[in-house]
Amino acid sequence: MRVCLVTETYFPQVNGVSRTLGQLTRVLMEHGDEVQIIQPRYKTRPEHEQTITVRAINPPFYRELYLPLPPFQAVRRGIDEFKPDIVHVATEATLGLAVLKHCQRQKLPVVSSFHTNFDQYSDHYRVGWFGPLVWRYLRWFHNGTRQTYVPSMATISELSDRGFERLVLWPRGVDGHTFRPDRPRREAIRTALGVKPDQVLVGHVSRLAYEKNVSFLGQALAGLESQLPDQVRVLIVGDGPARAELEQTLGPQANFVGYRTGEELADYYSACDLFAFASLTETFGNVILEAMASGLPVVAIRKGGPGDLIQEGKNGLLVEPSEPATVMSDRLASLVVNNQKRIFMSAQARNFALSQSWDTIMTALRNEYATSINAS
Predict the structure, then answer these.
(1) Does the residue 216 lie in any domain?
(2) Under a CB-based contact definition with an 8 Å cutoff, are residues 36 and 29 in contact?
(3) How many CB atoms lie within 10 A of CB 56?
């Protein structure tokens, strides 16, 4: 099978979409498929051999964002030369739109995937008035493809209500060998962070941006620190435009270590005892599954993907979207002070994560590709 994967975010960018697409590429190639990647042009050389890079602008107010710039003649020419059996468009902005139109003109089988809750993004950036137009465009875009792959049943339900068609569940997986509780550097990291043996380390991993509900997270963690000042420390892994505000809110009890990837990221997960996640924009929540694989009970908001992953009282606790940050503080505190309950949930979180294999999930997607190709 010859697969062209079109995305506006890929390595070396660190986010859930880039990690998911990296795993997809790996599994396809292990099956003997040829994969072409079309992505923005970053400062580093592409890691995949068959890659077409596109000139992109990197806004000074949001360094994690790369916006591909037209014209896209080289992209269209590259697709035609590659002669893909199927084209998977993973993002819907300028590059994705240009490729979708080209595939429709050339009658190439094209599928798409949905990764972001745009309602919450528009609310955070105070352009909610623009939301109906965005949803109208997204519905038109995805309904123009043969299938749309969606990471959670909660998101499928929402999109279906909005008129999206041909939705297929495509969940996420985790590497249970890399992300595990018994990482060798666990104690060394806790010592370096100044965490005492009897203290509980609450972790958080994400891009530190306002659409990730970072202000709510800061309030919840600050409230936890106030409730249990000598029992809790906080670890924040990630970076972004909201970092300064979060540092100011949490004060010296929190450690900020910036972005971490691979083995080093897994070491930081394993150094924690609990995981806090407040985002309302997740269609899945890769970091939740990584945290669970690392043996961490998760306290998150019941919105989108996290609501599918967390089994209340078993592998974590949920906060309703309408509840204040103090409720998340209380849920976290209940697990800090109850070691037995936290240890039970740790084992359950690990067991659940191990049932979610990247290879199984990506092989299932590969079978969906075959279905779309044969439908032509």
Answers:
(1) yes
(2) no
(3) 17
User: Which tokens hold the place of 283?
Assistant: 């269609």
CB 184 within 8 A of CB 246: no
209 and 160 in a common domain: no
Whether residue 198 is found in the same domain as residue 346: yes
Q: Which amino acid is at 179?
A: F
Same domain, 156 and 281: no
**Do 126 and 191 belong to one domain?**
no
- Pairwise CA distance, residues 37 & 114, whole Å: 18
pLDDT in tens, 177-233: 999 999 999 999 999 999 999 999 999 999 999 889 999 999 999 999 999 999 999
Q: Kindly report the CATH number assigned to the domain that includes residue 131.
A: 3.40.50.2000
Per-residue model confidence as pLDDT tens digits over 126-144: 555 667 888 999 999 999 9
Q: Do 116 and 139 fall into the same domain? A: yes
Q: Are residues 127 and 227 in the same domain?
A: no
Q: Which two tokens stand for residue 221?
A: 């963690």
Distance from C-alpha of 156 to C-alpha of 162, rounded to nearest angstrom: 10
d(CA 201, CA 130): 40
* Tokens describing residue 235: 């670890």
Tokens of 363: 């092989």
The residue among 57, 94, 101, 55 whose CA lies nearest residue 79 is 101
Rounded-to-integer distance, Cα 355 and Cα 342, Å = 20
Residue 178, in any domain of the structure: no
The kind and range of the H/E element at 148 are: strand 148-150
